Amino acid sequence: MGVCNVTPDSFSDGGRYLGEAEARARVDELVAEGADFVDVGGESTRPGAPPVPARDQLARVLGVVRWAAERGACVSIDTTSAPVAAACLEAGACIVNDVSCLADPELARVAAEAGAAYVLMHARGSQEHMRGFSQYPDDAYGDVVTDVLREWGEAAARAVEVGLPRDALLMDPGLGFAKNARHSMELLRRTAELVRGIEAPVVVGASRKSFLAQIDPDAKPSERVGASIAAALHAAAAGAAVLRVHDVRATRQSLDLVSAVREP
Length: 264
Known about the structure:
Elements (H helix, E strand, L loop, with lengths): L1 E4 L14 H13 L4 E5 L12 H17 L3 E5 L3 H9 L4 E4 L6 H10 L2 E5 L22 H18 L7 E4 L8 H9 L1 H7 L5 E2 L20 H13 L4 E2 L4 H14 L3
Parallel strand pairs: 1-2, 2-3, 3-4, 4-5, 5-6, 7-8
Helix pairs in contact: 1-2, 2-3, 3-4, 8-9
């Protein structure tokens, strides 16, 4: 799943694809590099980012979603707004990527009515209230894997209650969302437990995130590509079904090489 952030303030690529021409070129790049899905978002989810009104999100993303869908891409709309999701699904998106852990059940209802898939990501509250990158109380979880699986399951049940088919759900543990660096690293390390513990495909989005700075504290987001690829390889080996990444070509090369050299 390749990332196309049509925002001025996303943590890694904010402002690079804010113009529609730049965003269209980014979509074309992702497709050419081998992305299976293109994830388009018009609202930053970095810690402290303010919410963006639906009207403004749509002004940023709607034309980009149409462009991607017209080129045959399977488009994911990254939003927590039901009106934004509805408009983008009508424009050709086929997945809703919800980073709020179903803060608004209407979002799942919209996806159900459109027959869309739904990436339900674990989170606790809005990113607007996180104090900083990878800053969250260390004792906020007992066992982070157990707690995340339980809370995700509760949100999934609410989604099913409003009409979303259970088999439309994908699970994202939400690395960096209401988690500090240790929590995120533990979730990544135990990806196989997440895969075994949930009856849904698992999506892992570790790409360029701040918790990766544990192994290279001075690296800026764009300098975390090596760690991002290592995280993707680990997650894939552990059974993750989808990898959400900024660096599609490099990640796909790595996955393909591992596959090519693996003994038959």
